[in-house]
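2024-03-11 09:14:02 DEBUG pipeline.ingest accepted 1 chain
2024-03-11 09:14:02 DEBUG pipeline.ingest length=475
2024-03-11 09:14:03 DEBUG pipeline.predict start
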Amino acid sequence: MKCPTCGHELEEGHLICEVCGTEITMVPEYDPAVENDIEGILTKIKREIYGDDSSQAAGAEKPEYSKKIIILKRMLLLLAACAFIIGLAVIIASAIVGQGLGYRLSKTKEMLDSGDYLKAVTYIERTCNDYPESKEARILLAEAYYKSGDTDREETTLLNLLGSGGLDADEREKTEDMLVSLYVEREDYEAAAALLSDCTDAVRDMYEEYLADKPVIDVPGGDYSTAINIVISYIGNGKVYYTTDGERPGVETGTLYTDPFVLRPGEHRVQAVYVNEHGVVSKEASAEFNISGVFVEAPEVTPQSGTYYQPQVIKAGVEGEDLTIYYTTNGDDPTENDQMYTSAVEMPAGNTNFSFIAIDSEGNKSEAVKRSYTLWISANMTEDMALATLRARLVQVGYMSDSTGFRTGTAGRLVYEKNGPVRATNGLDYYTFTEYIENVGGARVSTGVTMGVEAITGGCALMFETGSGFSASHF
């Protein structure tokens, strides 16, 4: 059989032309036996309505009520026949439509796979006209437009799909992916960022570098009685620029955000924007702050938190003659009862958490500055092993009478506190220990002596601080 529209030879059993999409209407051939059956059925219905004419006298008049019954029966039979035909038509049409859409989609994909893009466009366009509610067909239409080089119509089709709603999760993700990919290919990064702001998480993850979401100022605006740290969070590998004076932030006009910053007493309007890797600027985040009270400058602490592989010196400084710095090594916020900072501190080996704070003469405190350090040095012993080595050596040379620290001719005993590793001027790393005399009551007085144990060999030395570091004199 050939298609009546395009003349294409159809395979047996096909109801749709695979070339032009025309539906084929099958007309049954004339069959006398079927007609005789229909005549017999109609004769039977006639007898049921009129009865047997042979029992009526010729020309006899039927009662009036019999005519009404006959008309009613005819109407009922007609309605029943119509209902049956309509129901059968709906069933057949549904089966044909379902079979036809699936076939057409499959056929379009075959055309796209074979590179016959223009033919695929024509074919799937007709399918979309015949099945306007099919989202799958329209997604395939957008793909056909893309492969045929018509990206404008692809964009329009995809935008209409997203605007129409009714997409399931997979259809929405596919549509968003295709549209973002199109904008990226065009290098229209503004459009990509705008679309991604409302996309599914899966698509946002795929195109994270093109996001330009508004940053978040994590501290809510309002009135505060002390200085506060402002933290800004954002998504992506771009950069955040901020201002605190009400000026619109940007690459040229804002301050690059790298760490939380402090707002001092006064009125402030913090504004921030995110700039992604492709130069797209986000919408602006803003918050207003009114800060009262006394401001105490927080200490500036170096080095920054991190992992180090050679001895480091921790320094803390602050402006103001009436300010005193205190610190802890367990991460707790310091008080006046903790260690006072008077000079640089050697970074301890291993993991430590320092916290520094400045306090003025009135007892007003700054924000705490926290640092976390990990120090690894080349060593054949731990710090505790080094201290035990030092005590044994001091007994050996007669400096102490026993390893507990007692020394002949003194009322107290020698106590050594860990002071962190240093790299001496000879290029070697030493665990260092500050020497104290402790009396029977437990009070300690520094002797001004610093001892060292070389971390590789365990050699003991007196350590002398010079302008360029520590020098070691072995004994």
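2024-03-11 09:14:41 DEBUG pipeline.report The chain has four domains: 109-203, 216-291, 300-375, 383-474.
2024-03-11 09:14:41 DEBUG pipeline.predict end
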